Amino acid sequence: MKKLFAAVILFLGAIVVALSFSELETILLTLQKAHLGFFLLALLVQITWFVASGRMYQSIFHLLGVHEDVLTLSRIAAAANFINVVAPTAGAGGIALFAAEAHRRGHPTGKVTVAAALFLLLDQAAFLVILATGLIVLVRRNDLNAGEISASLFLFGIATTYGSVLYIGYRSAEKLGNLLAKLARGVNWAVHLFRRENYLSEERAHEFAHEIADGFSGLTEKPSSLVRPVLWGILDKGLLMLILVCAFLSFEVPFSAGTIIAGFSMAYLFLIVSPTPSGIGIVEGLMPIALSSLNVNWSQAVVITLIYRAVTFWFPLAVGAWAFRSLHAGDERALE
User: Fold this and answer.
1) In 172-220, which ranges are continuous DSSP H helix?
2) Where are the chain's structural domains?
3) Whole-prediction pTM value?
């Protein structure tokens, strides 16, 4: 079964690459015109980003009394990112991978599930800090429009809802179970319009709520200590902005700190709220518009976007595929 699951995920990854082949071809042509040194520096920064993400996970795990080394968490995080791209389920696929790896490594599944869920929430909180700065830049330049305001409010609503659900689980397993059961009933009602069987189990909703509560019961420090992983999340975003700087330098395009912060904020915002996994096709279309509104030449904005996406999307996708395969290869060796 595990081999079949791994084969399906890797097959979906191949489909993502195949469907985006024309974009990859354009990126490769663009890379030929870029300064190789800055491109290699961007790749090095992206590798550092993997480690920083692992460190953020480690700080959250530590709060829940689970201890794991940074490199292992970085590898699992890369694999989780790969799954979230090829099988988008609002982050649930990545959380499931962390839970499976926790079980294999002898860690409490409930605690690791909570840690992975907290990572998604705190990562959004870290980005909201950066986004607020980017919006200030746009306001000062009189360049803030309704689309950016709507997307920002939508993201804030997602983060608030997600945080509220986790807070309810932290305070009461029973209340969270009742909430999830109501959601399950709503989903089943909608599914019944097309077929008679239930899609979600209300009983499983209550079980999951107790798993979340059990995970929070291991909180070894005060909730205020969650500030530390948020700071790691801000560092993650800082590294991504540094990659954007490398993209500008690759084509000798002048820029200011405001251009980098606002351009990154808009690109990452639409990546999150995009209906496509990791903003495939959406970021490539909207990021040049955002950069050109910040007084970057249109053709330069396009090539900068392609370089940035090559490093922050396609490179992590390839690393994630390797990480996912290596995790399952480890499972296979353990069974032999």
Assistant:
1) 173-191, 202-216
2) 2-13+26-335
3) 0.78
